[in-house]
User: Fold these one by one.
Assistant:
Number 1:
Amino acid sequence: MESRLRIAVQKSGRLSEKSLQIIRDCGIRFGSDSRLLKEQADNFPIEFLYLRDDDIPRYVYDGVADIGIVGRNEYDEQGLELEVLRDLGFSKCRLSIAVPEGFAYEGLNSLEGKRIATSYPGILARKLAQAHVNARIYEISGSVEITPSIGVADAICDLVSTGATLVSNGLRETEAIYWSTAVMIGHPGLFAEKRTILNRLLLRIDAVMRADDYKYIMFNLPKEHLDEAAAIIGGMKSPTVTPLLDEAWCAVQTVVREERFWDVLEQLKALGAQGILVTAIEKMAD
Ligand code: PRT
Ligand code: ZN
């Protein structure tokens, strides 16, 4: 029987949609019926297991799944030794200390002897140990942000993205102790056939993620400014330059890193570039 790579993704939650989208962007077709526990792709040897995010590292560790997509926070909290194959960059959040109004927070030392509620006792304990702070950690699986108001804890350590939840519970974010994004984790001992499928998948994922980092731009430029434009664009290779009917002008095509894009655009305009067209790149492989 043909071997299939088993990937564990969150069944329903913050990671689900983007985890499946990145696989879809790799040209892999499947139904993504969230009522199912297991499903196969139509055109790639991969099989999905839809699980609670907390269970994903353990399933990969035990070899039930070969790879998985999970928040780095969950992976680090569980402390199972796996391969982190890729940082996928989405579901960005931080693990922060937050305190009620009136708590004079001056750093981790202010937590000495205090009760801290969290769903991430492992990461918090490591951080406190590094800072030589002794505190009492209360492990709670959810609704951590209400614990100070009901007298269960003096402070909390919880995931934050916008911070709105903390504010609406009368808490102040005082210090981030850990940063997380979604990661693809893998079983370190995959046998050759599965490793080959994994490498095919990673090649596609890299192409999708690289494409997100770049824009494709085309513009017309007075030829005399070509060297200056090339220096501004920098980047991977020299740009493609095509002559135009008007011999004083040329057409230029190239890719530019997303984070430099507005800078580059302004500088090209200053050189006299015209008819600037910008498009997103769908895939980009070496
Ligand atoms: O059911 P299952 O166990 O699978 O899901 P879950 O409820 O345990 O996890 P889920 O879907 O809530 O989160 C999955 C992962 O998303 C986490 O492990 C993080 O890696 C990541 N992530 C990103 C977040 C957030 N952002 C986030 N904001 N996880 C949780 N939150 C919480 C936060 O703690 C707060 O209570 O969302 C609330 C709103 O946040 P604010 O700051 O935007 O108000
Ligand atoms: Zn969970």
Number 2:
Amino acid sequence: MANKGIILTGHRPTGPRHIGHLVGTLENWREMQDDYTCYFLIADLHVLTTDFEHPDRIQANILSVMTDWLAAGLDPEKATFVRQSALMEHAQLALLFGMLVTVARLERVPTYKDQIQNLGLNPSAGLLNYPVLQSADILIYKADSVPVGEDQLPHIELTREIARKFNTAYGETFPEPEGLLSRAARLPGTDNRTMHSSWGNTIQLGDSPEETTKKVMSMYTDPNRVHATDPGTVEGNPVFDYHDIFNPNIDEIEDFKARYREGKVGDVEVKRRLAEALNEYLAPLRERREAFAQDPKKVLKVLADGTEAARPVVQATLDEANTKMGLK
Ligand code: TRP
């Protein structure tokens, strides 16, 4: 497993995972399990930075994210699953790191600025500290690489700054981790907007084949095309974006695209084939998911066992940081 180095990455448990998570991140992580020492983090403390008002949801969301992760092929034989809130060392290291970064620096973090501008949020100190906690998540495992989406790169940059600052002040301790961007294209939602669970435009990993077909059949396509005989547009049409990713039959896709442009194929036929291809693509995942969904105790045990396996690792790093900062 381990030869390319240590990876730490994770998700906030905000709800079921969808096919955007699958092709954007989970398939990527699945491949990395063979080459890296991988820690997959359920960042439940991070959920509270924007939503502390629904404590009733967190446990169910942890279970659904873990179930979907395992269904996607993340494998406890190869990787370690960690629950952030169960290892207080994460929070404690974040507290220490908070001393090494200015408020002004944190106020310039783009994700933070976006959230207060776009959502009109009145930010909590917890939200301002979000990337400091994330830095602790990463550096407490001395991770070399962090596979993330592009939006997370500013957090990796801050992590590198904190590592440098610590190393300069107290001697070489932390590696400066690299952000690894996945090569998978960003998948649009079924309505062609950004995929967002709360917008009802996702296909979830837990959806049945029937639900999936229904969602595909009502997908957004070229809005200017009224009849099957009207020439259609392929570019920026999510039905074809999905075909490109999920349909292994490249000749068929090319044929559909050519006929679509000429007005020689209907949306229904193109979508019907997409639904079939997507359901075939998801079949092995669903089979695994079914087994895990029936055994939530086993799923949670994977997380509990991984967390215990990680405990000595995070204790050692926190101990080292405490000592170097003069607390021992
Ligand atoms: N901020 C990440 C997200 O929203 C989740 C996360 C928390 C994370 N800690 C992490 C990702 C550490 C990578 C490494 O997706």
